[in-house]
Amino acid sequence: MQWTDRIRQVKIFLVVAAIFIAVASLLVSRSLTGDLAQQERSRMQVWAEAMKSLSDADENTDLSLVLKVLDENNTIPVVVLDSEGIVTEYRNIEIKADNVRDSISFVTEQALHLKASGQVIRISLSNNHNDYIDVCYDDSLMLKRIAIYPYVQLGVVMLFVVVAIFALLTSKRAEQNKVWVGLSKETAHQLGTPISSLMAWTTILKETYPDDELLPEMDKDVKRLQLIADRFSKIGSVPEPVPSSLNEVLHHVADYMDRRTSRKIEMITDLPVDDVVIKVNASLFEWVIENLCKNAVDAMGGESGRITLHLEETDQRAIVEVIDTGKGIKKKDIRNVFRPGFTTKKRGWGLGLSLAKRIVEEYHHGRIFVKSSEIGKGSVFRIELRKG
Predict the structure, then answer these.
(1) Which of these, 7, 210, 317, 345, has the minimum number of CB atoms within 10 Å of its CB?
(2) Of 127, 144, 161, which residue constitutes the final position of a domain?
(3) Which is it for strands 378-386 and 78-82: parallel, antiparallel or unpaired?
(4) pLDDT tens, 162-183?
(5) How many angstroms separate the CA atoms of 253 and 288, rounded?
(6) Is the pLDDT of residue 281 over 90?
(7) What is the pLDDT of residue 1?
(8) pTM for the whole structure
(9) How large is the angle between the packed helices 141-208 and 2-56, nearest 10 degrees?
């Protein structure tokens, strides 16, 4: 749980950091954009005054400064309209037209658009209010880039966060896989020697006490230990699925659990008449069902109850449901039950359901999930396996 909580804290930190960077970037960018827009408007006011001076000039007027001001505007798109709306001058406009007539129409349309959006400075040329020019201007390319930049930066930051979280989860999953594989193989190795000894002792006991009724059950348990060791040894390698009868698998589980659980708990099998045959690794899939049944037994807390193994078949998949009448799962815990390390038991590693999920989804390409659960009434775990 500590590792899981740490991962959650890191993800929260990354998201909060990304939001902080994005908000700070947007605020700074808006401030810079506002300052630059104000500077450009001031420059256009000076440029408009220069246009007025050029219009009012006579042969004795020194126009060197006026022309210098007009020529220095190489970045801000500008269109000058007279009082009748006719274009008299334009600069830094990217024209998309094939001929002169279309060019004038395009520039006029651009000017009217800028004028309608309020990006215009009106300069009176005389005391007559009907004699004026409208200097229509657009934002410079630099201003537009600065305005767009924070959104690009936001996208980059979010992409970084997604990649970082994905890398973190991948690293965590790889580390968990190594731990599980190492632990499983070491467990299988450690079980090998005592199981071999037990098999030898049961053989001797059979020869010494051939009529003892308990020896067949002891032999079953020893073989069960051997099967468990074999399952652990297969963790980490990809098992080869073969056509198997799910009816038979569920019968084995029900028989095994019925003999080794309290008399208060009733094991029920709800299986179709015809065998449901599908490609699975029967040993590992049987372990998954056993694990769900053992969890169901724990959920009953020593009280009377019922566990039902339900099997049905559709055209595309086989469906197995493990239904219990236990204490149920809290809604807030349902999404966490398959998370490695999560457990509600006082004693437990929280690996059983996560391993079951891995066996179903990675080895058999199926789905396992909590179909429903109600506090005090029980839970339904559902497994869906694709055919073919």
Answers:
(1) 210
(2) 144
(3) unpaired
(4) 887 787 777 777 776 677 677 7
(5) 10
(6) no
(7) 46
(8) 0.52
(9) 170
